[in-house]
Amino acid sequence: MESLLAELRAAVGAGAVLTDADVTAGYRRDMMPLAPHGQPLAVVLPSSTAQVRAVVRACAAAGTPIVPRGAGSGLSGAANAVEGCVVLVTTKMDAILEIDPDNRLAVVEPGVVNLDLRAAVEKHGLFYPPDPSSYDWCTIGGNLATNAGGLCCVKYGVTTDSVLGLEVVLADGELLRTGRRTVKGVAGYDLTKLFVGSEGTLGVITRATLALRPLPQAPSTLVATFGSTAAAGAAVSRVVAEGVVPSLMEIMDRTSIRAVEQHLRTDLNAGAALLLCQSDSGGEAARRELAAIEQACVGAGAELVYATDDLAEGRDLLTARRAVLTALEVYGAWLTDDVCVPRTRIADLITGCERIAAEVGLRVAVVGHAGDGNMHPTIVYDPSSQDEFARAERAFDEILGLGLALGGTVTGEHGVGKVKREWLAKEIGPVGLRVHRDVKRALDPENLFNPGSMFSP
Amino acid sequence: MESLLAELRAAVGAGAVLTDADVTAGYRRDMMPLAPHGQPLAVVLPSSTAQVRAVVRACAAAGTPIVPRGAGSGLSGAANAVEGCVVLVTTKMDAILEIDPDNRLAVVEPGVVNLDLRAAVEKHGLFYPPDPSSYDWCTIGGNLATNAGGLCCVKYGVTTDSVLGLEVVLADGELLRTGRRTVKGVAGYDLTKLFVGSEGTLGVITRATLALRPLPQAPSTLVATFGSTAAAGAAVSRVVAEGVVPSLMEIMDRTSIRAVEQHLRTDLNAGAALLLCQSDSGGEAARRELAAIEQACVGAGAELVYATDDLAEGRDLLTARRAVLTALEVYGAWLTDDVCVPRTRIADLITGCERIAAEVGLRVAVVGHAGDGNMHPTIVYDPSSQDEFARAERAFDEILGLGLALGGTVTGEHGVGKVKREWLAKEIGPVGLRVHRDVKRALDPENLFNPGSMFSP
């Protein structure tokens, strides 16, 4: 192993190869407490594509697995170290190489922080939609690897919808360029979208060409409260059926509401559920959209509906949604699940989570992106209690089973990683799993990249 | 071969196995005159997924290649028969299995005609965006296989952006289900988008779950004329830079305009170029968008700009664009190319096509989807003249070289098929080609599906 370490130091410089266990400990896992993680041989922080290629070649020659990693904000353990691996961290490759306003695209290195890109393109009147909750510290590389979503998805899609092309270092160190700089193009297989969401199992993304959108109008905001979960679910269905596409549509269940009320020392006047919606269409279009949403909410039995086009007030109304996880910390540690169900089944998911919470004897707060059915039931437990942790794990799994039973998927945006491998196999079945293994073997025959993540080889 | 034919008859019924050369001749090629085509052993028209699986298993056992085919409206030769193959035609599998308005999705068989799906979902106030020019006869299966585009793409993307999941018969007859029914989901590799656009080289799509959108507002239309190609190109750039996203933005060059004027016996008052734009945002939003487009056109030096929200008048204005190919038929046969360039390079592409036209001594009319840079230079030639045909071929290739040189791609929406194999190799390079071959081998190790299409094995 000493010869590999020497090669890595030659490749990226001694200062960019970390081996001190106290230091590498910070790179062993991401934000998902349930996923397994090992002890890396080393953590390397390359500064260029050439350095990434040298690292990949050295590890391939030594037969040492590579786990690519961005900021470590993931929630699936995809970036967790496997025993004896090299963790390849892309945070030093953080240059925004180009912003081309006339063709509405940006070319970036993988270590660029999502928020930094958003801010840089906003200066040109442009918008990079994907906005995972960790947008102020997660990196574009991690967003690409996980096909990250966020609050914007209901109107603007997920990360894959904003990617035009990639540069990827393959398992033999060769450099693959996928996609193009044009907004349309069908030359060959869509390798770009194959790498997006492949969770570091197929190669290391070293550059991305991203499609930008015009900066939307300042948002108008609507909040609606409901006396029953069913009524809130019906409101979501009515909005979808009315053909309105809000730019944000979030739901909070009873448990979330109570936690936030206690945390913010306020009364949200919401019995069972709260919906928050925004329109960024501006002017009359925004008013028309919010009016249609209001009508849908009232028709579904909303107790209170309030809309505003005042920006500061809109931000205040969103505070409740953004405060949920912090509010839950008063009760213990939290574990966020991630299922996506058909939009008509949101109420069933929330009701099911109430049942699961009662069964395991833990608090489960459901918040989620109602506009696309992507729900984040969040389980609260006492981290010092092994018993509570085990019950939290049980709830986590039962929620996934519930999501599948409702016609959904076991991950809407967080990914499979090292925490949902068995669930991926359940969702896609033996033929799906075989094709995954075939694709993995075709691109990474020696199982160099993130081995055992997403699925067993 | 008799035993294979017997097995095929057993699989799909004798009436659905065509072997008479006079009959199978109609299935030998698509609409691209330049692509090679062979003589099929048989044409089979299965009626169900089970029948497709039986056909695939029989052909795999016999080592007989399969060329999947929809309506044959393609423009790349992707559906052209290879010598001695079985052409598997999916047009009999034409059921719309489900329309779910509450979750805005449809489940369809591959043989459904694009227009039939559009009409069926419109009854529910819903919209299936992809609208290739052949939408009144092309099938969804072909649209999926080629990742078809159309006029809608500037606002609504291409086919892959509307696909949630697929059912695919693999080379060993196994049935793969990809994707999901939810609008978001990241469980595993994005196999859905790998199969979309794979041009029948990886499997046979037998079912698709498609995402629908709310039906847009009735369109408002704007037409602008320009005295120079550069001014029209500048107008497109200004519209993009202004952050306006029209629902349609088409360009016609001088040659197209003259042909249409002669055909429709009218004067379009357009010297060098004509832009047609629509907004389907409705009401004030549409007026705002068209006003911004008008300002961009005037700023770029438009000679005449006219906008209307009258539906019938808007349709009339679009007549010119729709009449181009018919108008060109007066002069001879036409051959439509398909390149996509950065939106800032549209004028350069048109100017380059004028140069190529002069060089080869043929008429080249450029029409295209200006909003996304996807241009269709159309070469007119005398089909009875071998010399003109050869010059048309030369122009076809030179246009592709020009597209690449301008930073574009050799196919924006028609695909690679059997006509642009060498150009795909040029565009993606040796590493890209190797990965294509690796993926193909992983999914179709015996090279059963559409062998030699898209790239040589």
UniProtKB/TrEMBL annotation, chains A, B:
InterPro entries: FAD-bd_oxidored_4_C, FAD-bd_PCMH, FAD-bd_PCMH-like_sf, FAD-bd_PCMH_sub2, FAD-linked_Oxase-like_C, FAD-linked_OxidoTrans_Type4, Oxid_FAD_bind_N, Vanillyl_alc_oxidase_C-sub2. Gene3D superfamilies: 3.30.465.10, 3.30.70.2740, Vanillyl-alcohol Oxidase, Chain A, domain 4. Residues 36-215 form the FAD-binding PCMH-type domain. Its cofactor is FAD. PROSITE patterns: FAD_PCMH. The keyword Flavoprotein applies. SUPFAM superfamilies: FAD-binding/transporter-associated domain-like, FAD-linked oxidases, C-terminal domain. This is FAD-binding oxidoreductase. It comes from Saccharothrix yanglingensis.
